[in-house]
Design goal:
The protein is built from 14 helices and 15 strands. It is of the alpha/beta class. It starts with a strand and ends in a 12-residue tail after the last helix.
Length: 377
Amino acid sequence: MDAVRVAVVGVAGMGRAHYFAAAAMPEYELVAICDVVEKPREKAAARLEVPGFADAAELYASGLADAVILATPPSTHGPLVRDALAAGLHVYCEKPFVADAADGYALGEQARAAGLVVQVGFQYRFQPSYAHVRSLIDAGTVGPIFRSALVATSWFRPQDYFEAAGWRKEWRHAGGGVLMSQAIHQLDAMLWFTGLPARVTARASRARHDIEVEDDVMALLEFPNGGRGTIVASLVDPVGSDRIEIHGEQCSLMMDEHQLRVGTFDGPAQKLSDESKNHYDPVPVSWEDVEVPPVSPGGYDYMMDAHRDFVGAITERRPPRITPEEGTRAIEVANAVYLSAILAAPVELPLAAGAYAPVYERLSAGEVALPKLGRLG
């Protein structure tokens, strides 16, 4: 099997991890890089001994690549993916895929029509404990999920993080704050387990940072089966948590910093509620710590696994694990959170066509804004 000829667009930040991965994997032949900024472009091209392009359109037209890896600021993703597909190239796109879910679903239709692979970079789905949770759900071990909870407050960022790259502050360029740019990984994982909610009620604010986008979010999710869920995501906690809880009729799953515990009881939960005569004592629960391979620093191993899945999808002519549609579901929920926060009202899902775009435009233009909280103390 011939290696897939790949080019990396955007070689700062996460782009470096992607081009190191592409250079190290025998499944890839790294043939070019691209960046609009001269210094990182020339440095990466020299290090990797490949041509460096300043313009993605020129790279796409060069015929050098079969596929591209996009690691550019979020506002550029939609046009870059659209043009790559038009040029006949497969695409691996970093998160967040797009700012508006409607654009993500449209790109999925374009990819299917062209017979091309688009993989969205939600690498957490390749992390062993997350994959094990999904396998338990698929096997029916968990039963119907009646409650889920996401706490993603381990993303502390100082003000200088935003000053160092000003686009991170702005709706127009970042597409959102903590929920879109950081906690989107955990949000995607939770939705992989639960499916899309039917209604979102949320509050989002600028709690500590001088930015346009949110640094703190709380949301209530209501699911079609009557289940409930919560989201807490923040950039402001010096001591934060990375935790997902899934509570089903047959057992509960607790993921803390990627460590998985499974709690089983003599259920189902509804039967315990209906028939138990024990008023006060806790329900007996058997806890199992699930052994999974250790996580590499920065999640590099499962990023590599995501790339292997992308290559496999190309060579085996199958869908990748995270299609544009899969990669857009978390965007749709994030859009609903922002809509609910601005409108101060619950928002129904799936979103009505065109519901988010005008509000996003007003946020980007500064015509509406999330509340800015005063300093504590």
